[in-house]
Amino acid sequence: MDRGDGRAAGGGSDGAARNDLHGNAETAVQIQNNTGAVNIRTGGQADVPLEVPPEPPHFVDRTAALAKAETVLGRGDTTNVLVLDGAPGIGKTALIRKCAAQFRERFPGGQIHVTYDTGSRAHREDPDRWVTIVLRRLGVADEYLPSTYEGRVNQLRSRLARSAALVVIEGATDPAQVRPFLSNAPGSGVLVTSDGPALPELELDGARSLALEPLDSEAGRELLLAMGGDAAAAAGSGILDRLVAACDGLPLALATAARRMARCSPRGLEPLAEELEDEKQRLAALAPEGQATTVSAVLGVSYGQLSAPAAALYRALSSWPCPRVGVSVAAALGDTDPGSVRALSEELTGANLLESDGSDHYRFRHSLIRLDARERATRTESEEQRSAAFRRGLEDFLAMAAFADRVVMGERLRIVDTAAWTGGRSDPFGADDKRALRWLEEERETLREGVRAAARAGMHDHAWQLAELATALYLNVRYVTDWADTGTAGADAAQAAGNARAEARLRSLASRPLTDLGRWERAQQEIERALRAAEDAELLLRASVQEFHGRYLEYVDPDSAIAAYDRCQRLNERVAEHDAYNGARGAALAVYFRGRAFATSGREDDAIAAAGEAMERFLALSPPDERMAARARASLGYAYSRAGRLAEASRELGAAVEALRAGGRTYYQAEAERELADVLARLGAPAAALPHLRNVLAVYTAGGNPQAREVRDRLAELNG
Length: 720
Prior knowledge:
The chain is an alpha/beta fold. The chain has 32 helices and twelve strands.
C-alpha cells in the first residue's frame, strides 16, 4: 500500500523479499505470505473543512473590492493570494468572510481559518504552531506528524494539493506566516489581512494587494439604516448624514453608532449626533458600556504593540493640526531627527496607524486614529509639553514657508522677517520657483489649518506670519475661500499681537478674495480697517494699501479707483528715492492697475497706453518681473478686445497665456485664457475657444471661484 508521494517495491526478480522506499510517504506497508488479518492505522481522513466564520449579517458596498477579489481568486492555473490592507476597524475581517461565503463553491477542498495572535509585535507568533494545528484539523494524528518544521510544511502542502482550498489568514505580520499555506493545487486561494510592513514581499509569490478605504456617505447611511433599527428608519437624512460624517466612513465606528441608535428614543438622536460631532467626546461615544469591540479597544491593540519611541511619535503627531505632515515637521514635533522619524514611521505604518505617500510625508490612516493619538497624548503629556511640540512643528513649517515665499515671490513688500526663519538653514527648493509653488499647493490645507490652530493656541505672532507667507500661494493660484479665511484670521491675530503694520498688510490683502467672492460689505470693512491701521506706517506699506483700496473700488466706483492708483503711484515714487527696486515696482503696479480701471471705465485708449507702459516698466526692473510683465500683456490684450481690435487682442492674449503657463501661474493663465476664448469666439472660431474655457473651468472650480458657473454656462452655449 502506498500513500503520499513515496514509492515502495515489494520484491526482486529472483523472488527474494526487498525493502525499498523512495520519497516521502505518510504510510508504507509491505506484506508477504500473510495468513491473518492486517490492521493498518494511517494519519486519518477528515471531512472537508469549512472553518471560516459566517459572513456579517450587515454588509454594505465594497463592490469594487469584491470584484477585485473575484478577479484575483478566479485564476484557475495557480495559487491566488490577495492581501487586504487598511486601518484598524476598516472592515478587513468582514470582507474576507464575505469573500469566503460568496466564493465557497470555487474551493472544493474547503476553507481553512488561521488567526495569528497580534497581541505583541515584539514576539511574532511562530507559523509552526498554525501549521501543526491545521494538519491536525485535516486529520493527521500527532504520531504521524513529521519531527521537523520543514517536514510538517511539506506534509501540509501535500494535503492542500489534493483539491483547491481557500486559506483565510488574519493578523499576519510577516510573509513567513503566510508562505507555508501556499498550495500547489491550481485554483487554490489565500486571503490575508495585513498588519505588517513586510507583507508586500509576498508580491514575489504572485500576491496582489488591496487597500480598503472608508465607506462613502451613501454606504455609511445604508449601514446605519441596516443596523440602527426603528430609530434609524425614523431619523431624518440630516441626522444620518451627521453621524456618517462624525464616523468618517469607518465601518466599526458606524456599526457602534448604529447600535446606539437602535437603543435611542426619537428625542435621543439629536444628543447622540451632537456627542459624536464633538471631537472631545467622539471616541468615548463610540465605546458604549458593555461593548467589547470598540474603536478605542481596536486601536489600543495596535498602540500596545508599539515600541516606546514609536508610541511617543504617534502621540506627538497628534499635535499637528492637519492629517498630513512632512518628515521635517514630524521630527520637530517629536523632538528628534528626520532619520529617526523615517525608522519609527515604518513601525507605525506596520501597525496600520500611519501611512506614507512616498514623498517623506505621512498621515494618520483615519481621522479617528488621529483622535485616539490626541487622547493618548492628553493622558500622557502635560499641556505645556503638547504646546511645546506644536510650537516646534509650527516653527519648522514657518521656515519652509519663508523659503517658499522668497523663491516664488522674489523681492516684495513683506512684514515677516523671512531671514529670521531661514537663517542657518539650507534652501530646500534650490531657488526653483515651480518646485516651491508646488510645495505650497501640496501644503494648502496645512497653511489654512496652521493659521487657525496658532490663533486658537494664542500664538498670534506665528499665526499672522504664516498667514502672510501663505499669500505666496494665493497670489498665484487664488484659492479665494482659503485666502479670505486665512487672511482675516491672520489680520485678527496681528491685531491681537499689537502689530498694526501686519494688520494693515493682511487686511488689505484679504479684501481682494472677499471682493472676488462678492462679499462686498466685508471687503469694504477690511480695506477701511487696513487704511486706518496703515496711517502711521512707512510709505511702501501705505502705497500697497492704496493699491488694494483701488482694486476694491474698481468694482464699485472705477473713477475713485483711478484716483487711488494715482495716490499709490505718487507714494511709490517717493519710496524709490531710498528703495529703488520696490519703489519702481510699486509704481509699475499702480500704472498696471490704473490701466485695468481705465478699461472698466470704457477708456480703451488710456487702458492700452497704461498696459503697454506697465509692461515696459516691469521688464525694465533689475531683475525683470516676468510674471507681472505677462499679466500686463494680458491686460493689453483685454484693452484691445474692448476697443474691438480683435486680431491684436488675440496676439497679445495668446502670448500672455504662454508666458503665464511657462511660469506656472495657473490662475492668471486662466484669466487670460477666458478673455482669449471670448476673442476667438468673436473672431468666428468657437471650436478654438473650447479648450481654453475647459482649462478656465478646472482652475476656477479647484479654487472655489464663484465665476465657475458663468464659465460652465458659456461652455454649454458654445458647445450647443
